[in-house]
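Title: Comparing notes on inverse folding

I've been comparing how different people in this forum approach sequence design from structure. To keep things fair, I'm posting one structure and asking everyone to reply with a full sequence. Here's the target:
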């Protein structure tokens, strides 16, 4: 069996362009689907997939570890940069999809079978009109409460929001009070039984991140995500030690080596590798093994397209420390037209049980993909009130 071609198919989904990767083989009807979506870097990723594919044409797609080593280590530059790592990830997912199809089983069966009966999903509420956080009006807080109530009405028992605004390195009390009002509104709207997560999006400086973490501690968050830049792991560790709230990080980290530092420094309670960026399922399994030795939970970052979701779920069914999966369900109204999924979401609690379709259990409708060709994403830019650059 040989790989005959590797192609990318780009599908614009408003906020981002999904980059699907299709690996063809010389066996009739046998191919694999992966995903290498990286917002605002679509052209770079498509080019990286094409470059890397030249290493794999003619190889046996079933030799996944061997091919991963080739993709990571050849051409001198290791795949530690986000663009190349994302390209490797997309190809890697497609190879696992092929292997599952070869053996006629879901991918999680290749790794020893399911370790749980279901996976819980959570949704993302997004953020409010945070440029006005320094004002005293409560319109954003009201909106967060409404969105929280709607998430519960949609069947979710957990949700995440971006209630922490972008701030200067030190900005006083106003943004902290803003975040408090928004989280209080969500908690009041859904009660104590629903799990609330807050994503700081690595916007704050270490000191502001500490202030936000302390202020939000009374609301019993499921976790507080990226309270400061992931480049400052020592500061994330300080915040982790200073509050009872579990701290989560990892969505911007690439390769097991970056995650090793997080674990060695006891910097978080929840690791969030993105399977489409960290090196695919092959590398995610190594990261999970390390996390398990530290008894750190896993909750993959997954705001991308449907192949990323299918892979994240297959990963979760075979990974003991996995606790919850991020779910995008309303980014575009035609999402389900693009994909046939092998899993079913139970509406009461938004639970997913293991599927039986082989590989990742999905198939992409290429005709539907062609209806939504590449478009330049709307650039997201953040500036503080004095005109200095902020973090989106």
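Reply #1:
Here's my take.
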């Amino acid at each position: 069996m040989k790989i005959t071609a590797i192609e990318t198919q780009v599908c614009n989904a408003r906020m981002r362009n999904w980059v699907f990767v299709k690996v063809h083989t010389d066996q009739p009807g046998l191919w694999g689907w992966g995903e290498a979506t990286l917002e605002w870097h679509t052209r770079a990723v498509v080019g990286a997939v094409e470059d890397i594919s030249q290493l794999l044409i003619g190889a046996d797609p079933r030799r996944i570890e061997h091919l991963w080593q080739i993709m990571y280590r050849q051409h001198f530059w290791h795949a530690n940069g986000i663009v190349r790592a994302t390209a490797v990830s997309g190809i890697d997912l497609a190879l696992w999809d092929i292997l599952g199809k070869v053996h006629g089983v879901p991918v999680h069966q290749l790794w020893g079978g399911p370790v749980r009966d279901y996976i819980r999903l959570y949704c993302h509420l997004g953020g409010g009109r945070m440029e006005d956080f320094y004002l005293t009006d409560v319109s954003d807080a009201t909106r967060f409460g409404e969105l929280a109530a709607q998430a519960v009405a949609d069947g979710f028992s957990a949700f995440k929001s971006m209630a922490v605004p972008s701030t200067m390195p030190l900005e006083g009390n106003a943004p902290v009070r803003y975040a408090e009002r928004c989280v209080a509104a969500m908690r009041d709207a859904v009660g104590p039984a629903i799990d609330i997560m807050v994503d700081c999006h690595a916007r704050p400086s270490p000191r502001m991140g500490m202030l936000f973490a302390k202020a939000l501690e009374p609301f019993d968050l499921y976790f507080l995500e990226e309270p400061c830049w992931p480049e400052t792991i020592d500061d994330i560790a300080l915040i982790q030690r200073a509050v009872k709230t579990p701290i989560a990080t990892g969505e911007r980290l690439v390769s097991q080596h970056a995650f090793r530092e997080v674990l060695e420094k006891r910097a978080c309670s929840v690791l969030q590798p993105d399977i489409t960026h960290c090196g695919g399922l092959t590398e995610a399994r190594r990261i999970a093994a390390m996390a398990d030795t530290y008894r750190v939970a896993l909750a993959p970052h997954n705001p991308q397209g449907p192949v990323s979701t299918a892979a994240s779920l297959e990963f979760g069914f075979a990974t003991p420390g996995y606790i919850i999966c991020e779910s995008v369900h309303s980014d575009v109204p035609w999402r389900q037209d693009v994909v046939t999924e092998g899993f079913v979401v139970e509406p009461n609690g938004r639970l997913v049980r293991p599927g039986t379709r082989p590989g990742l259990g999905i198939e992409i409708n290429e005709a539907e993909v062609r209806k939504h060709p590449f478009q330049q994403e709307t650039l997201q830019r953040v500036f503080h009130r004095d005109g200095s650059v902020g973090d989106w």
